[in-house]
Amino acid sequence: MVAAGVRSLLKEASLYKKAENNYADCFLCSFRCHIAPGKRGVCGVRENRQGALYTNVYGRLIAQNIDPIEKKPLFHFQPASRSYSIATVGCNFRCLYCQNFDISQMPRDKKTIAGEEVDPLEVVSEALETGCSSISYTYTEPTIFFEYARDVGALAKDKGLKNVFVTNGYMTGECIDELKETVDAANVDIKAFTEGFYKKVCGATLAPVLKSIERMRELGIWVEITTLVIPAMNDSDEELRNIAKWIYRTDKAMPWHISAFRPAYKMMDAPPTPAETLERAMDIGLAEGLRYVYTGNIPGLKGESTHCYNCKKLLIERRGFTVMKNLVAEGRCPFCGTAIDGVEL
Length: 345
What we know:
alpha/beta, TIM Barrel, eight-stranded mixed sheet, three-stranded antiparallel sheet, 19 strands
């Protein structure tokens, strides 16, 4: 569901400090914006009003959907369950290939903030009534609607629901510490492994993303990684191997999802990713010792299903976002007894 709203919804932001001359210092994400009076941060939705910082998107949803958890993608977190998925407009990145640019870049491109007012209690009620096991904060960057996600998440936890962030990972350590009691899992993009790519294509930097992933794992948040592979931009063996090596050093049990690029937004002239590139990347990841590497968004490739990393037997068979069978028993491989990493497998 996508809806346009007209009412101005303002709530004082968290994770900021008042500064001299009515400036506001935001430390929600790693841009750490120093925002002048009457201006907004990089995200386009946090606004300085006379020295106090406000969020323009609290409770203003641009999208509400019921998705399979596999779409996030999360393959080792409550497989075959459904996740109530929500988003507001806005993003702190400016990815040139964004698939959801119409809502993520709306505050910048159209200078407007749309959405339908939805109380946190209503989100949780809808999730429960539709049989969802979790709430996902997704489609745009959930960090920029942190206050709303935090409030929804706390209510969801009280009702036995899990909370999932699908994120670019650019939040600060302070933000992660605020979320640690409510967020159970995250899919984090590692968009490339060079600062040059992040600066040119995303308008950001790589290092804070890696730091966020490390912090999440330290706090016990389940993390899976996604890399969208773009021909001639981040698809070299060296770069893919560097990503795999970093994942291995950080936590070799973190699943790595490798997805195909399709022309979008400001990169309509770039070629789509060949299927063989995804399979090559998967082979690199497995050769570097990762336990779980998956190919995504090209049906029929060999990397859709989960195999035991010890005995190599098929455990969870998938076709697209559908789980055809799940043989994991009490978190273990039924053939060799090896513990399979994940949550509620």
